[in-house]
């Protein structure tokens, strides 16, 4: 399978590493010279990865092209390149719709949009994807957990949630710090908080039907700690703050489309 990447930033780099450490079988991966230092490091690490001299060489040497350009640069860069009707295109660009991509690329076999995160490097990453074909699904299934959405509206709503990564880690950090201040070793608190949230998410993932309200009620023993904390946090509006932040992120996202 011949894969190419136009743009080699944080997300693309993680995807490339995930692909090269997956069980997909034989791959050849062509990288654009953009972010040359990162491309060189990946090429030196993996024997099946090669930095090409130009973006056009990436296209010419690939059957499936992943586009990971900055939104402000994407259309102008793509409009100068020659695609053909044998090329499958997968875009990681947030603010470029399917129709805008099609107009910029002009000739293609198929276009998909997907949202991998840096955690894909561990092969443990949900990957929302719009309009995938069978081959794209297979590739994503080897590096994470693809989640097909029915429309770009759904994709954009989910994309908004990726803006909550920083506050999530900040919450974990605040809880770890509180535990440390109450006498627990720093390494132990960090490990426990990380493992606690992972185990709770795992329980939800393995439920026959994921119902967060039911999971919360199940944990809230009458007069117990979870019931008390849940009530206090709800009444102080902490959850509503996350909803408001998401509304603001989505509004900004839609403004940029």
From TrEMBL:
Keywords: NADP. NADP(+) binds at residues 68-71. Residues 168-248 form the Pyrroline-5-carboxylate reductase dimerisation domain. It comes from the Bacteria. NADPH binds at residue 55. InterPro entries: NAD(P)-bd_dom_sf, P5C_Rdtase_cat_N, P5CR_dimer, Pyrroline-COOH_reductase. One of its GO terms (biological process) is L-proline biosynthetic process. GO terms for molecular function: pyrroline-5-carboxylate reductase activity. The keyword Iron does not apply. Coiled coil: none annotated. Residues 2-92 form the Pyrroline-5-carboxylate reductase catalytic N-terminal domain. The keyword NADP applies. Pfam families: F420_oxidored, P5CR_dimer. Belongs to the pyrroline-5-carboxylate reductase family. This is NAD(P)-binding domain-containing protein. The lineage of its organism: Bacteria, Pseudomonadati, Bacteroidota, Flavobacteriia, Flavobacteriales.
């Amino acid at each position: 399978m011949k894969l190419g990447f136009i743009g080699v930033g944080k997300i693309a780099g993680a995807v490339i590493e995930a692909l090269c450490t997956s069980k997909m079988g034989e791959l050849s991966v062509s990288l654009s010279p953009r972010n040359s230092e990162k491309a060189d490091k990946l090429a030196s690490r993996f024997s099946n990865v090669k930095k090409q001299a130009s973006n056009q060489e990436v296209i010419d040497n690939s059957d499936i092209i992943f586009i990971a350009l900055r939104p402000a640069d994407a259309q102008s860069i793509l409009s100068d390149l020659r695609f053909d009707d044998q090329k499958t295109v997968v875009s990681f660009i947030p603010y470029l719709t399917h129709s805008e991509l099609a107009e910029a690329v002009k000739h293609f076999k198929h276009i998909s949009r997907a949202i991998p995160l840096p955690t894909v490097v561990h092969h443990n990453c949900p990957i929302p994807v719009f309009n995938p074909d069978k081959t794209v699904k297979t590739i994503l299934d080897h590096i994470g957990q693809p989640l097909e959405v029915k429309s770009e509206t759904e994709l954009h709503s989910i994309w908004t949630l990726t803006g909550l990564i920083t506050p999530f880690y900040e919450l974990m950090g605040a809880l770890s710090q509180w535990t440390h201040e109450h006498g627990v070793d720093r390494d132990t608190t960090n490990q426990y908080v990380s493992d606690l949230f992972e185990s709770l998410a795992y329980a939800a993932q393995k439920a026959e039907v994921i119902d967060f309200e039911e999971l919360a009620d199940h944990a809230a023993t009458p007069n117990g700690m979870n019931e008390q904390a849940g009530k206090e946090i709800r009444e102080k509006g902490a959850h509503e703050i996350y909803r408001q932040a998401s509304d603001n992120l989505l509004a900004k996202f839609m403004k940029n489309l």
